């Protein structure tokens, strides 16, 4: 059942509450101090850009820098600098693109995969500690609804990307 806006066109109070909660968790998870704690606990000395890039790459095949930038929603030059740092630290390598030998793709090394695994494991342990008092049923419901919400957000974003831009 859809949650329509109120008769005056304003969003429902539930949607307002969800937006506020999402803002709070996004703010908490994106704080520099929180990132530094996570990296220290994981034993991975990466900045936020490097960690984000490695996590994105861990869920995909090797990809071109431009494709990686698009998936991260950043400029290609940002990815180029981050990849250079990650190459120096041994987390990624450039490999030939099998579809176009003139191009290169970025690929995780074993060290990069191990770093992502430690970051994720540390993050999950922290989340487990924070939610330790939740019942298994509540955790299942949250996981189900959260995945549903993300899927709906992605579908909505895709719909907006395919809509024609109004002309004047």
What are its keywords?
globular, Arc Repressor Mutant, subunit A, two-stranded antiparallel ribbon, 168 residues, mainly alpha
Q: Please, how many helices?
A: 7
What is the C-level CATH assignment? Answer: Mainly Alpha
Q: What is the fold-level CATH name, i.e. the topology? A: Arc Repressor Mutant, subunit A
Give the amount of beta strand, in percent. Answer: 5-15%
Task: Explain what the structure shows.
- The chain is globular and about 55 Å long.
- The protein starts with 12 loop residues before the first helix and ends in a 6-residue tail after the last helix.
- Helix content is 65%, strand content 9%.
- It has one domain (32-152): Winged helix-like DNA-binding domain superfamily/Winged helix DNA-binding domain (Arc Repressor Mutant, subunit A, Orthogonal Bundle).
- The protein has 168 residues and is mostly helical.
- Strand 1 (92-97) and strand 2 form a beta hairpin.
- Strands 1-2 form a two-stranded antiparallel sheet.
- The model has no long low-confidence stretch (mean pLDDT 89).
- The protein has seven helices and two strands.
- This is MarR family transcriptional regulator.
């Amino acid at each position: 059942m859809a949650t329509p806006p109120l008769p005056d066109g304003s969003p429902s109070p539930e949607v307002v509450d969800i937006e506020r909660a999402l803002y709070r968790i996004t703010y908490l998870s994106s704080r520099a101090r929180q990132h530094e704690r996570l990296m220290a606990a994981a034993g991975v000395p990466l900045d936020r850009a490097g960690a984000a890039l490695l996590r994105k790459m861990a869920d995909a095949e090797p990809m071109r820098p431009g494709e990686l930038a698009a998936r991260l929603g950043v400029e290609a030059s940002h990815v180029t600098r981050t990849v250079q740092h990650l190459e120096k630290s041994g987390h990624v390598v450039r490999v030939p693109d099998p579809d176009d030998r003139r191009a290169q793709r970025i690929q995780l090394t074993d060290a990069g995969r191990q770093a992502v695994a430690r970051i994720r494991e540390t993050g999950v342990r922290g989340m487990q500690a924070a939610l330790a008092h939740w019942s298994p049923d509540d955790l299942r419901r949250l996981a189900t609804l959260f995945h549903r919400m993300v899927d709906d957000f992605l579908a909505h974003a895709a719909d907006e990307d395919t809509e024609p831009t109004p002309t004047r």
